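Archive maintenance. Older records in this collection stored only the sequence; we are now back-filling the structure field for every entry so that each record is complete. The fields below show one back-filled record exactly as it appears after the update. Entries are processed alphabetically, and Sushi domain containing 3 is next in the queue.

ARCHIVE ENTRY
Title: Sushi domain containing 3
Organism field: Iconisemion striatum
Length field: 151
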Amino acid sequence: MSGATASTVDGSRTELKKTDDSRARKKGHWQAQCSPVPLPALGTQRIIQGNGTNVGSVVSLQCPARHKLVGKDLTCVMGSSSTQWVGQSYCQPLSFYEDYGFRVAVLASIISSGIILLLSVAFITCCLLDCIKEDTKKTFESREADAGQQE
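Back-filled structure field:
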């Protein structure tokens, strides 16, 4: 009922399945499918488009923490005589320097945000103190002027 062609390089194969469409059954149409993508050693697969085996299906890989994605999404395409998965992706652990650099950048960002907040509070405090001094000075001068007029 189904023919299969295997490739030793990528493990893809062609399966021909009859579609469920009533018109296709009457005409005897077959639909080409790729073999299911094997589960990755690291990360999780997510089907972006299609059902995961039909021609045109797109499968992406999501990497766990402290890993980066290398490569592109896998796409099931029809070749000259069989279907195959095009593209390759895998999760690679971050090097010490990439992970360390990211942590240093986050820490520097937090510290600079703290400094900005501290300077903003100091500026607002200075402005308020200056306003209070100015207000006190005006109040004192107005009292002296009132006292001078009463005499």
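Update note: Confidence is low (pLDDT under 50) at residues 1-29. The radius of gyration is 35 Å.
Entry marked complete.
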